[in-house]
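Q: Got one fold?
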Amino acid sequence: MNKLWKILQYGYLAVAIIFFIEGFLALNSDKEKSFIMFGFGIFITLVFFFKRHFRKKVEKRNSQAQ
C-alpha cells in the first residue's frame, strides 16, 4: 500500500503541471481564468509537499516502532 501512495503522490505534481500549462495558455485570452488556474496549481503543489512530508513522517514512526 505504501508504494501505491508514493506513486499517487506524483499524480498531484502531474495535475499541478497541467494547471500551470493551462494558466499560461489562457494568460493572453482570459486573465481571470489564468489566475484561477495558477491558484489551483499552487494549491495542488502545496498539497503534494504536505502529503510527502506527512508520508515520510509516518514511515519514520513506523520504522521506529518495529
